[in-house]
Design goal:
Blueprint lengths: L13 H6 L5 H27 L11 H27 L3 H32 L2 H28 L8 H9 L3 H16 L8 H4 L2 H9 L3 E6 L2 E6 L4 H6 L3 H4 L4 H14 L5 E5 L1
Antiparallel strand pairs: 1-2, 2-3
Helix pairs in contact: 2-3, 3-5, 4-5, 4-6, 5-7, 5-9
Length: 276
């Protein structure tokens, strides 16, 4: 803060600055991308503060909203930053490969870590540990896919033309979700600076929830906290028993996609828990 206003600064390693005068073209391009991305992130924070004064330094109204924001807000940041970076600097083959690899690694970890956390929860009943594992795994997928989608959008490329990315999403039953995620990130880009409330970012929490559905985990706000339901093996019956306000927001097509992906992935554990 300075004179009542939020100020931002970019602090970089000396190697980044030295790369700007390096004869190595790859090092120079990497340094430019880093600086452009940081400048784009500062611009996003500046625009949020201008459109929604005081929001950045204000706590979220509920613990649930705070948890959702901690997962999805970095993803919105990543999309905006890397889309603008790609527009300003272009995307080299090396940068494209790095982004793809980071996303696929996050996707693989998601597919391994959450089932492992669910298995551990079955015996330990440690809901805090389960919740933490789910947040870490899902946040990584959301950020890395947003980075990849932002980069491809900024380069005017079809994000799902890459066979490795498409196959990775299909393997986890997430290909249709991936398309919708891209559409909604693009909408956030289109409405840049014209947000009416910070809730426009919190709404992205639906994508965190969707990643949990594959493993039979459902969350919703309750009494200011987050209710976590880990479903039994009879997943379809459990899905139908959820509160009407949740089931009614999911189209029949989404329900069928969700159930099919779950059946192919195996069951979860029969336990309800409350996280507040």
């Amino acid at each position: 803060m300075r004179n009542g206003q939020i100020r931002f600064r970019i602090i970089g390693r000396a190697g980044v600055a030295l790369s700007l005068i390096d004869a190595d073209e790859a090092a120079f391009e990497a340094a430019v991308r880093i600086l452009a991305n940081q400048a784009a992130n500062i611009d996003l924070e500046t625009q949020i503060e201008a459109a929604l004064p005081g929001t950045l330094l204000s706590p979220q109204e509920t613990v649930h909203d705070g948890a959702i924001v901690s997962v999805v807000y970095p993803a919105a940041h990543a999309y905006r930053g890397w889309r603008l970076t790609a527009q300003l600097t272009g995307t080299s083959d090396q940068a494209r490969e790095e982004t793809r690899s980071q996303f696929l690694m996050a996707l693989d970890a998601y597919g391994e870590d959450i089932p492992s956390a669910l298995a551990a929860y079955q015996s330990s009943q440690d809901l805090d540990a389960l919740w933490s594992s789910m947040i870490v795994a899902c946040r990584a997928v959301l950020i890395e896919l947003a980075t990849y989608l932002g980069q491809t959008a900024g380069s005017d490329e079809d994000p799902l033309s890459d066979p490795a990315v498409t196959q990775g999403l299909e393997a986890h039953g997430l290909i249709d979700w991936g398309r919708r995620y891209g559409v909604e990130l693009n909408r956030l880009w289109r409405d840049y600076g014209a947000w009416s409330e910070f809730g426009d970012f919190i709404k992205f929490g639906r994508h965190f929830e969707r990643l949990l559905w594959r493993f039979g985990v459902f969350i919703w706000p309750e009494n200011g906290g987050t209710f976590v339901r880990v479903t039994p093996i009879d997943f379809e019956a459990a899905f139908r028993s959820l509160p009407d306000r949740l089931v009614s927001t999911v189209s029949t097509q989404d329900q069928n996609e969700l159930l099919a992906a779950y059946r192919s992935a195996g069951g979860a554990v029969d336990r309800d828990g409350r996280k507040t």
